Amino acid sequence: MELEPTILTREEGNVGIITLNRPKALNALNAILIDELLAALRSYDRNSDIGAVVVTGNNKAFCAGADIKEQRELDFVGAYNTDYLKDLNDAIVAIHKPIIGAINGYALGGGCELAMMCDILYAGRGAVFGQPEIKLGTIPGAGGTQRLIRAIGKSKAMDMILTGRTMKSAEAEASGLVAKIFDDEETVTRAIETAQKIASFSAPVVAMAKEAVNEAEELGLKNGLHFESRLYHSSFGLADHVEGFEAFLQKREPRWTHK
Ligand code: CO8
């Protein structure tokens, strides 16, 4: 039984900020935290005042993975019937608004996988990424084997997944896992600034851009280009598109109506 909320939420302007809040367990993902995280993400996704979301943890840990104490109780059938992983992945993939992961400290196992479900990753210099499941006698179960290879390539992904070694943020940035690194105390602020910048653009256009980029993971180049064209053409039907082009030609800032 959790006495404290397992996540905390606050808003800064048009940005929703979700902080994982199980510090004593290094923000390990248990069933309650996953439910609360998904409820918060869905709520921000439906909130027209929010244009982007930041997900973060604390300075010691973004998230140390699945809750090992909770998972230890599961046998094959229990694990098979536990929908956490699928719920977590499916629900985050379905969020329309961009999610920035602001990572300080450990992002291990399911924590690294949760980070990789975000759209953009910013990390503090002290952040540590890894898929140490092999040391527990299991393998990544929330997308680690699939997303890490896409982020950093096969050889590095194998090196990490087969040995359980961790990667510090400088290597993570050089490998393309994270977009930018900062001093730890700046990570969340910079993520919020970027989220505010994204939230200042036309919301439907931002959603289209996110969707098109994400489809690149699913589709071959031919189908991906076709999908992109369709969304690009659709954007010509938006009032914000008319406004954006007019504003440029009139040498003024656009006034988005988000329509
Ligand atoms: N689950 C539950 N509790 C944890 C976890 C975890 N993953 N990680 C740390 N804790 C707890 C510790 O048990 C400890 O609790 P207590 O004070 O009651 O003993 C507390 O957090 C602090 O941890 P440490 O004392 O170990 O702190 P250190 O600074 O010495 O070490 C480490 C930090 C290196 C991060 C270490 O805690 C560690 O190795 N943690 C486990 C990391 C790991 O193996 N993660 C992978 C888990 S398996 C997984 O994620 C499968 C993915 C499936 C998808 C999940 C979606 C639900």
Automatic annotation (TrEMBL):
Keywords, in A-Z order: Fatty acid metabolism, Lipid metabolism, Lyase
E.C. numbers: 4.2.1.17
Name of the protein in question: Probable enoyl-CoA hydratase, mitochondrial
Organism: Paxillus rubicundulus Ve08.2h10
InterPro entries: ClpP/crotonase-like_dom_sf (IPR029045), Enoyl-CoA_hyd/isom_CS (IPR018376), Enoyl-CoA_hydra/iso (IPR001753), Enoyl-CoA_hydra_C (IPR014748)
Gene Ontology annotations for the cellular component aspect, listed alphabetically: mitochondrion
Family per record: Belongs to the enoyl-CoA hydratase/isomerase family.
BP term (GO), one: fatty acid beta-oxidation
Gene3D superfamilies: 2-enoyl-CoA Hydratase, Chain A, domain 1, Lyase 2-enoyl-coa Hydratase, Chain A, domain 2
CDD domains, sorted: crotonase-like (cd06558)
GO molecular function, one term: enoyl-CoA hydratase activity
UniProt cross-references to Pfam families, sorted A to Z: ECH_1
Lineage: Eukaryota, Fungi, Dikarya, Basidiomycota, Agaricomycotina
